Hints:
- With about 260 residues, the protein is α/β, with parallel strands linked by helices.
- The chain has helices at about 10-30, 30-35, 110-120, 135-150, 165-170, 200-220, 225-230, 240-245, and strands spanning about 60, 85-95, 95-100, 125-130, 155, 160, 175-180, 180-185, 235-240, 255.
- Helix 1 runs antiparallel to helix 6 and helix 3 (about 110-120) packs parallel to helix 4 (about 135-150).
- It is globular, with a radius of gyration of 18 Å.
Amino acid sequence: MPGWRVPRSGRILQAMLAAQIALAGLIVFGDFRRIAPDLWRANPTPPAAVPVRPGDQTRRYAPRDLPRDQPAGPGFPRSDEVPQRLQFTETQVSGLKTVLLEGAIEPGDSARLAQYLDQRRSAPEQIALHSPGGSVTDALEIGRMIRAGGWPTVMQAGAACFSSCPYILAAGTDRRVSRTALVGVHQHYFGENTLLPAFLAVESIQHGQGEVLDYLDSMGIDLRLSAKAMQTPPANIYILVEEELTRFALATEMVE
Length: 256
C-alpha cells in the first residue's frame, strides 16, 4: 500500500534476521574466530582512543581495550590487566555501600556472585560495573539476581561496560551512568561450538537472542538496543552515546 511503513518492531526483527543470516554464512566455513582472525580488522581504533560522536560509534573490540586511564579512586586502581573473571570488591560510591563487579564474565560467575552475596554480613546498596563482558548466560543470571535484590547499578567515571555487561547494567532498579563511562554492544556467541550445520547454528543464535529480548523487555529496556547489537560484528563494539543510553532506558540518569 502506498505510504505503508514497516512497524518499528518489524524493523528490529528484520535487522536481527539479516545479522543472523550473515553469521550463518560465516559459520558454514567453520569457526571464523580461528580461520579468519583479521576478518574484522577494518577499523583498528580501540574504544577509548577516539571520542565517539553520533554516526561514528563503532570501534575495534578486544577485552584488552578496556580504558586504562580511568581516574584513581575506590575500586578503580590503575592496572595493565583486566581480571580474567569477575572480581567482587566492596567499596563506597557516593557514600553508598557498593559492590564493584570488575573483569571478564566467565561461566560460573553468576553462582560465585550469589555465594559472595550470601556470605556478606550486610547487603550492598548498589552495584558498580567495569567489565569487557563475556558469558551471556551468566550476565543474564547476574542481572536477574540484581533486579530481585532491588539494587541500583552504576557506571563510574572512566569505567567501561561492553558486550554482555550492559545486560547487568540494565537490571538496576535505577541506572546511573557517568558521561565519561563507555557502554557498548555487539553480536554475541551463543555457545562455543560453531562447527555445526548452519541451520542448527542459526537455531541456537535465534534461541539465545530470543532469551535476550525477553530479558531486556522484562527489565524495561527499549528493544532497539538489540538491533544495534546485532548490526555490530563480534570483533567490533558499538559505543552508545548519551542520547541512546537514555532513549533505550539503559541509563535512568546521566551523571558527571
